[in-house]
Amino acid sequence: MRLSKIALLAGSGAGAFLMASGACAQSADAPAKAALATDTEVPQPDIVVLGFGQSRQVQSVSALDIARIVPGASPLKAIEKLPGVNFQSADAFGNYEWAVRISLRGFNQNQLGFTLDGVPLGDMSYGTVNGLHISRAIISENVGRTEVAQGSGALGTASTSNLGGTIQFYSDDPRDKLNVTGSGTYGSDNTWRGYARIDSGLIGDTVKGYVSYDYYKTDKWKGYGEQRQQQVNAKVVADLGPLGDISAYFAYSDRHENDYQDLSLDIIKRRGLTDDNISNDYPTAEKFGQFYQNYLAYLGGAAFPYPSVGLSFPAGFGSLDDAYYDAAGLRRDYLADVKMDANLAPGLTLKTTAYYHADKGQGSWITPYTPTPYGAPNVDGTPITNPAAISFRTTEYSMHRGGVVSALTYESGINTFEVGGWYESNTLNIARRYYGMTTGTSNRPAIDYQSNPFRTDWDGKYDTETVQYHVSDTVKLLDDSLVLNGGWKGVRVINNGQLRVGTLASGRIEARDWFQPQASILYHVSPSTELFVDYTENMRAFTASAASAPYAGTQIAFNLIKDTLKPETSKTIEGGLRFRTGGLQASAVGYYVDFSNRLLVFTNGSGIQGLPPTLNNAGSVHTYGGEFAVNYRFMTAFSLFGSYSYNSSKYQDNVTTKDALGNLVILSPTAGKTVVDSPTHMLKGEIVYDQYGFTARVGADYMSKRYFTYLNDQSVPGRLTMDASIGYRFDGDGPLHGFSITGNVTNLTDKKYIATVGSNGFTASGDNQTLLAGAPRQFFVTVKKGF
Known about the structure:
mainly beta; 22-stranded antiparallel beta barrel; six-stranded mixed β-sheet; about 10% helix
């Protein structure tokens, strides 16, 4: 990592070029502050703010809303009710990262931008390439609010993947008074969770802070195994008076989770949605590997190495991929940042954040496709003399990244000028290794980090350097009734891959666009009505990893594309209306997106085989649609929220190549097909009661069918899920003050459905083992006490 450059940027935050910002035209707190400052009619607090005062489609949910879902659930679950948000997970908490998927308006997760207090989280991919998941970056109770920009994030958002919108999380500030809070949750599948937080209160009227701890453990809802996590968060804020303020944040997370089995439609038809890994049956898992070795011997005309097994699958199974012995994901993260907001002169402010993130991870499968050789090292390094016909396959990660995000803002008259930038240096080490297994009894728990491999397929080091800047101006006219925003950003991302072991690609590739404009208009028609229109251009940079394109292919293939491969780009225009009066908030927006150079990754074989994917440019995708949201507090105690979205995303071109004679050949006729994992209709709603300490909530979420092949010949049906909660808190004086008890039910109707699509990527056509089942109905009870 080029720490000298980071230090240089931190020391020269007032420079005009290399500075960055988490907001364009308005501060990150603008939506919430605008709603509180200008809308005295709407009862407070509002748990959903529909972006009033913003010239883009933006909504935010508060900590109060997060508190109404299952404690410990991902903050993403709190925003799944917003229009245009497609959230999927195979567990009740939404924390199981292999299954978590979120998309906006047909853009998938790695085409969105994510930040925490302005610190980039990368694309939150499972593969840990350039960031970390929000469920590891912060404990859910410490999230102050979450803001969703469905169409385009602010110019200064620290992201190189935000083609289709941004999701920004903001941590809660420490309390002004000394406070101790603790809670415990117990529920289905032996779920245990504990949370504790201590706030110092103000020390000397200037400094305050908190430290919190969370422990979570649950058995899988099907199959065998567990998922557990422990986290530590700490935050300190110091008020420097007229000079500004300074804050620091720290997060530690250690997560171990046994995986659920990926499914295909064929597996579901034969074995049902409850099919899972056979972690309780090691002998049967060995038979899968023995069968495969017999099959290879049969193809080669050799004698069966396991004659007693023959060419028959174990009873009840019809495919080598029906069930593996076990699989797991392990992640250990350290995240820290220091933020300085300085008042340099009247009207002149500088906001700078320096951050550092370290990650160690491992994703594992017990594979029947690779046997353990005789003499392979055991856990303790001694040779294995009874090797199994299966082995322990891992993808191992080590990442260190650091950077600076800064913005200089000057207010003068009707103008607010801003110039800023972002620099990050990221080093990723990633390897594919195999570890020896013994016959008869498993010698390696999948949920532990492994040592002493017998083989390394590939091992590489990947450096990514990111430079981004932006310039903007906000002009307020007609007594602030008309607000004009304009500006642009530029970005350059350089990826350098160095393969140490293996035959995959090495080399340099760059994505660069120094001018990506953004312009918007906000017009307050009346105190209760506003109109907005926004235009944005964005680019998604390439990512560097041996496990993903373009580095996952051969050196020859990489050399052919490295100088000509174009990064994905988008042009988005949206416009809408917001209205509020009394207890009613409503918004309606329409949008159109021209998405160019759409890069489709075609999966080859089952995921466990680890075959290199194929990367193809599918040309353009055109997207249009509408989003509608209503938040109505029709009585003091009752509030109703509902949203509907319509989205049409279609590929405009076929995937083509040229033959040896230069003739155009169609590889995949994708033109006119709907984008994978892109439901056309989504309808969400909830009703909440909160009065005299009693709370109750019921929510519903519907989405229409989703395709999981590029040619739309395979899909999963639409589904409607519901959840509910009920609770009571003691608000009066006495020993029970601050005590509450809450019950939560997820999947209230016990719907049997397919939750996640694309867990193992997408293919052109045909069935694919890339689906995950949704969790059944589950119950949880939480008690909480503040002191």
